[in-house]
Amino acid sequence: MNHMINTHKMNDILSKVTAAIDESKREIFDIAESARNEYNDLKKELIEIQKSIQTVISEVDKLEVLEKKSRKRLVDVSKNFIDYNEEDIREAYEKANEFQINLVLRRQQEKELIKKRTETEFRLKNAAQTLQKAENLTSKMGIVLEFLDGNIQDITSTLEDIQQKHVLAKRIIQAQEDERQRIARDIHDGPAQSLSNVVIKAEVCEKLIDIDTNRTKIEIDLLKKNLRDTIKDIRKIIYNLRPMSLDDLGFVPTIQQYIKNFQDETDIEVDFVILSKQWIEDKVKNLCIFRVIQEALNNVRKHSNASLVKLRIEMTKEYTTMSIIDNGLGFNIEEVESKDKIEGGFGLMNMEERVKLLNGNFEIKSTKNNGTRIFVHIPHDN
């Protein structure tokens, strides 16, 4: 009796969890609104800074012409001072000095504005990232709440042993930690290092701007390229967190787009075939299938040394089946599963757990030098 679950107590706990998640969702929504306002303000500020820079650049160009003329006039007066009276000489010196001072001031103003623009662009990017993450989290919170409200009674009715709850909680926590570690690693290896390089490039530009204009332009072009690459990396990380195209494009187009990107990045051919036209509207199942494909192709990219992957999906009213077969090196399943439990290197546990949570079957076959075959079967009943 000690091992049986007190469903009333569990429902009370789940209600509190749902309320806490709902409150967190509202807080995240407030963060998103604040980030959106900050983003819009920074965007306007950046536009104004750009206008100011253009104005100052135009003034610098005019002052350079005037300063050059005044120096020429001063040289002429100095050489032929006998032909000029004292007033002409004083006026030539004063104008040359005035133009030179104004030119220095305008150049300094231009330099400060460019620095301010760089800082504002950086803040704008951070605000955009915060906004995107907050919106993604709000969406995920909504999915969690929908799941808890609609399905938790069925789950509690089937959990008869408290140990099952303990194991599930450990797996969820481990999955969260693995995801956080992966995100941290992706950010550290990608955008974080790229942004450090951007800062260095910006400092180089700052030092060169009054010394070597041509070199400065080259460095700015490199700076812009680094920023574009960083934005691309950030978008990739966001996409891996939540493929928004699943909602926008649909299940099959999202997979096709992911495969195209995978082929472009790896030169590994993916032969993708849909064996039916019966789509399911269950977003959770679609996301689960997409994540299994994503994890499997990621394993191919990192470990298999394959040149070809065959992906087959069949959907009926009753079930979805999928096979993923590559011609790579293969591996010893027992060794990898043991290592995967400790290090999470291949993500086999993650794929299997995703499928099992949907009452599905997950099977993997592989031997060294004979490739890997993954088979998934997910029923469409509740």
Task: Please describe what this structure looks like.
By secondary structure, the protein is of the alpha+beta class. The protein folds into 3 domains: 1-159, Helix Hairpins (Orthogonal Bundle), CATH 1.10.287.950; 161-242, Single alpha-helices involved in coiled-coils or other helix-helix interfaces; 245-379, 2-Layer Sandwich (Heat Shock Protein 90). 75% of the residues lie in helices and 9% in strands. The protein is built from 9 helices and 5 strands. The protein has helices at 7-79, 86-158, 162-208, 213-241, 245-248, 251-266, 283-304, 333-343, 348-357; strands at residues 269-274, 308-315, 319-326, 361-366, 372-379. It has a 5-stranded mixed sheet, with helices on one face. A hairpin with a 3-residue loop joins strand 2 (308-315) and strand 3. The longest helix is centred in the N-terminal third of the chain and has 73 residues, at 7-79. The two termini are 29 Å apart. It catalyses: ATP + protein L-histidine = ADP + protein N-phospho-L-histidine. Keywords: Coiled coil, Kinase, Transferase, Two-component regulatory system.
Question: In one word, what is the shape?
Answer: elongated
* Count of helix runs: 9
Quaternary status: single chain
Mean residue pLDDT: 78
CATH homolog superfamily of the largest domain: Methyl-accepting chemotaxis protein
Major sheet details: 5 strands, mixed
Reading side by side through the largest sheet, how are the strands ordered? Answer: 1-2-3-5-4
Q: What is the number of beta strands?
A: 5
Name the CATH class of the largest domain: Mainly Alpha
In terms of per-residue confidence, which ranges show pLDDT below 50 for 5 or more consecutive residues? Answer: none
CATH architecture of the largest domain: Orthogonal Bundle
Strand content: 5-15%
Helix-strand makeup class: alpha+beta
What percent of the residues sit in helical stretches (DSSP H or I)? Answer: over 70%
Enzyme class: transferase
Organism: Serpentinicella alkaliphila
EC number: 2.7.13.3
InterPro entries: DegS, HATPase_C_sf, HATPase_dom, His_kinase_dom, Sensor_HK_TwoCompSys, Sig_transdc_His_kin_sub3_dim/P, Sig_transdc_His_kinase_DegS
